[in-house]
Amino acid sequence: MHELSIMEGALAMALEQAQQAGASRLHVIRLRIGALSGVVPEALQFAFEALSSGTIAEGGQLAIEPVPARFWCEPCRREFQADDLLSACPDCGTPSRDLRAGRELELASLEIE
Asked: Which CATH number does the domain 2-112 belong to among 3.40.1280.10, 3.20.20.70, 3.30.2320.80, 1.10.10.60?
């Protein structure tokens, strides 16, 4: 379960930022997770609950913002959304390998006190 190591890293970054800000409580950690990142949000949630115990994030919330996969269609000169890497433009049917979004794994923001 690679989500455990991902959450370890994200939580460490969040706690470091909270500490630098002089926070006594970390209420919310917001992550942006791409649809094609290979990360299972439920497993991240489980890891967060286990790893935050005993920290200023204990009892806090992990908020996950899903990022859909977006591809570029060269013939149509536009982006389109798709659910997997084998995607074709819904207008012209041209397969696209130009992934513009969907692999994100970002610490987007924190709510601290």
From this structure: 3.30.2320.80
Q: Where are the domains of the chain?
A: 2-112
pLDDT of residue 1 exceeding 70, the answer is: no
Q: What residue ranges in the chain does DSSP mark as E strands? A: 26-34, 61-67, 69-73, 78-82, 87-88, 95-96, 99-101, 105-112
pLDDT tens sequence across 55-91: 999 999 999 999 999 999 999 999 999 988 889 999 9
Q: What is the C-alpha to C-alpha distance for residues 23 and 33, in angstroms, rounded to an integer?
A: 25
**β-strand pairing of 61-67 with 95-96:** unpaired
Strands 26-34 and 61-67: parallel
The whole model's pTM is what?
Answer: 0.87
